[in-house]
Design goal:
Pathway: Protein modification; protein glycosylation. By secondary structure, this protein is α+β, with helices and mostly antiparallel strands. The chain folds into two domains: about 400 residues, no CATH class; about 230 residues, Trefoil (Trefoil (Acidic Fibroblast Growth Factor, subunit A)). Helix content is about 45%, strand content about 10%. It contains 21 helices and 14 strands. Helix 7 packs antiparallel against helix 8. The protein is elongated. It starts with 16 loop residues before the first helix and ends in a 14-residue tail after the last helix.
Length: about 725
């Protein structure tokens, strides 16, 4: 029974020493001196703010990308015990002792280090030699720009890691497809492809480009499977569903989960709340939630309300009025109605309160039981403090003469009767009998007499043009806009603060307007509602792009005609620059050019039934180009269509794919164009000499890659290989 104990238990394992060595070298190159400099380096000043907000659980909005990358950086801070207390206000500021610099920079550095063995494995899975794969990994290892970008609290190295992991996973899955479909390893690599794609998109929207490329490649491969008679209809359907699950369903689910975790962590009110809707703000702890907690849910006749414009950018504002009137004549000579001014005011104020009145009744209090206002009901809006009615008429607005002036009506006993009836339209209603709800309902007020819509004039980039002159206290203009001119968020309002009015007397009502109400009604948003709003804000929020000293155009990246100074020591000449390995960048461009020229040559010759290389070599050439050239194209060309401030580091994902192309082209030239032994020997000698120059450039620029040692002025000047490079020379 115990006979199996007579023999030793033996476990055998195959260890690829190339992979081990490359991983160790990658870790050394990225982790060495990681805490240096102990100062804020370039965009650490940007990402560090979000890390601090995560540590304090304060909500924020960043339009640069989804939250996974920020959460990974915050994870580093959490593991290092960071409490979030540091003022991220200046590049070069010394970190205080409570900031775990090594921990904050660890995850980007690990991601950058693991890109080295990933490059090796990708070339192996593309069926290239281990020598070519080793060359690709060493090129990634010795690429100065990738080293610099991975050694700080930045996101590009994490993005590139997930991109390469997605490509490698799909190649492994595809190679297993030929002999072990639906095996555990087949499922593992297919599912890992979807996970890596979702993580790439979750770090930065740029990851979407590689995800789309892999979906296209997967679709092409499946199209070929459809034409293969060896697959039955049932088998094809199973393959289709497996790919749909792994490459679409799982990435979408994971993408949602990133936001779920993000919103779960950031439950406190913060400085970015104002661009969100009132409902979203009220779901956060503190801030608006402290004001709106316990408000009545349903707006009724007699309700006292404040109306916030839904647009919320570049600033939030509320419908407002005060005792001042429009001037009889404006500066340009046009006349006005001389009625009481109505504006949109960007601060909370007692003059923001309005009372919802039933036109058929005189009372300004809520009846018992309350009579709710529904979609389509006609109301009058009475200004709480001055008791004048919201009104519009056929008089040109002060700054927007094509629109109608909005005012609070004053009876001057002239031939201008009041026109103060408004129809409530609930835009996000589920039915035509929906009740107008506090915070939740997005409403539009349509003037009954003229069909004009109540609109706030808010121009994100032209605030001076949207503000009234001194007589209007520089507040924002409110107009009556004709429906025919279209729909815009500036025409939509929601009730933010709300109470049921109880005082009929004006003096008592003024006291009431200054006091809070307390009634227990919850207005929590669902996750999907919060996700939809946050995602829409991230996609549509446009910060005003300003020219940066180190910004560049996409054309500057190809030949590396630009650089970025990341850090300068306050006293010595030590500095860190985002600069690539010149030899590698030039070789990558030549490899891309050679690939395109050779591909065109082969295609033309094949069209003439002339086959210069074997069919399997041709298929290998095409598939390798689809990954490397395709990866370069999808990660580079879209920047020509983007209207945003661009920097050299945006090119690094595309560059990574282009670097993978270098050994692909070199092996192809060696295998198919160097036909004699002499030519192969000469070619190998040239490759060795070329690779030596790659290492030489890496070593030459390593002082400005790692920031140490500090170089004297003559040596710093010697590193300025291009006139367009900005190497910092300290003047004593």
């Amino acid at each position: 029974m115990l006979g199996f104990l007579k023999k030793p238990i033996v476990v055998t394992a195959e260890i690829n020493m190339n992979l081990v060595a490359l991983t160790v070298l990658g870790l050394i190159s990225r982790l060495w001196g990681l805490s240096y400099p102990r100062a804020v380096v370039f965009d650490e000043v940007y990402y560090g703010q979000f890390v601090s907000l995560y540590m304090k659980r304060i909500f924020f909005v960043d339009d640069s990308g989804p939250p996974l990358g920020h959460m990974l950086l915050a994870l580093g801070g959490y593991l290092g015990g960071f409490d979030g207390n540091f003022l991220w206000n200046r590049i070069g500021a010394e970190y205080s002792m409570n900031v775990p610099v090594w921990s904050l920079r660890l995850l980007p550095a690990l991601a950058g280090a693991f890109c080295v063995p990933l490059a090796y494995q990708i070339l192996v899975e593309l069926q290239f030699s281990h020598c070519s794969a080793l060359g690709a990994a060493l090129l990634i290892l010795l690429e100065n720009s990738l080293i610099t970008q991975s050694r700080f609290m930045l996101l590009e190295s994490i993005l590139i890691f997930f991109i390469l992991l997605a490509v490698l996973s799909y190649l492994k899955f595809y190679n297993l497809q030929k002999h072990s479909s639906f095996s555990p390893s087949w499922w593992f690599w297919l599912l890992l492809t979807g996970v890596a794609c979702s993580c790439a998109v979750g770090v930065k929207y740029m990851g979407l480009f590689t995800y789309m490329l892999l979906l296209a490649i997967a679709g092409l491969h499946f199209w070929h499977m459809i034409g293969d008679q060896n697959f039955s209809n049932v088998s094809l359907m199973c393959h289709f569903l497996a790919r749909g699950l792994a490459l679409i369903a799982i990435p979408v689910t994971m993408y949602l989960s990133f936001f779920y975790l993000h919103l779960t962590l950031l439950y406190r009110s913060g400085p970015h709340d104002q661009i969100m809707t009132s409902a979203f703000q009220a779901s956060l702890e503190g801030g608006l939630a402290r004001i709106t907690q316990g408000q009545p849910l349903e707006v009724a006749y007699g309700s006292q309300i404040t109306l916030r414009n839904v647009l919320g950018k570049p600033m939030q504002c509320w419908l407002h009025s005060h005792t001042n009137t429009y001037p009889i004549r404006y500066e340009n000579g046009r006349g006005s109605s001389h009625q009481q001014q109505v504006t949109c005011y960007p601060f909370k104020d007692v003059n923001n309160w309005w009372i919802v009145k039933d036109p058929g009744m005189q009372q300004l209090v809520v009846s018992n039981p309350p009579r709710p206002v529904r979609h389509g009901h006609i109301v009058q809006l009475v200004h709480g403090i001055t008791t004048r009615y919201l009104n519009t008429h056929d008089v040109a607005a002060p700054l927007s003469p094509h629109s109608q002036e909005v005012s609070c009506y004053i009876d001057y006993n002239i031939s201008m009767p009041a026109q103060n009836l408004w129809r409530v339209e609930i835009l996000n209603r589920e039915s035509d009998t929906d009740v107008w709800k506090t915070i939740l309902s997005e409403v539009r007020f349509v003037h009954v007499n003229t069909s004009a819509v109540l609109k706030a004039i808010i121009f994100p980039l032209q605030l001076s043009g949207a503000s009234l002159p001194e007589w209007g206290y520089r507040q924002l203009e409110v107009v009556g806009e004709k429906l025919a001119k279209g729909y815009h968020q500036s025409m939509v309002w929601n009730v933010e603060e709300h109470r049921y009015g109880k005082s009929q007397e004006q003096k008592e009502r003024e006291v009431e307007l200054h006091s809070p109400t307390q009634m227990d009604i919850s207005k929590n948003l669902s996750f999907m509602a919060k996700f939809t709003e946050l995602q829409w804000k991230m996609l549509t929020l446009k910060n005003e792009d300003t020219e940066h000293k180190y910004s560049s155009s996409a054309l500057d990246w190809i030949m590396m005609d630009t650089n970025i100074a990341y850090w300068l020591h306050p006293s010595s000449g030590a500095q860190i620059h985002l600069l690539g390995n010149v030899v590698t960048w030039a070789s990558a461009n030549l490899a891309a050019l050679a690939y395109v020229c050779l591909s065109l040559w082969y295609l033309i010759r094949r069209r003439r039934k002339i086959y210069d290389i074997p069919e399997d070599a041709w298929q290998l050439w095409v598939s390798a180009g689809g990954v490397s050239v395709g990866g370069w194209a999808v990660n580079y060309l879209p920047f020509f269509l983007m209207e945003k401030t661009l920097f050299l580091y945006h090119y690094l994902p595309a560059l990574t794919f282009q670097i993978l192309l270098i050994p692909i082209v070199l092996q192809h030239l060696s295998d198919h164009l160097c036909r004699s032994l002499l030519l192969k020997s000469m070619f190998s000698a040239l490759v060795v000499a070329w690779f030596s120059s790659v290492y030489f450039v890496y070593w030459t620029f390593s002082p400005v890659t790692y920031g140490q040692p500090s170089l004297p002025v003559p040596e710093l000047q010697g590193l300025r290989w291009k006139d367009s490079w900005n190497i910092l020379i300290r003047k004593h």
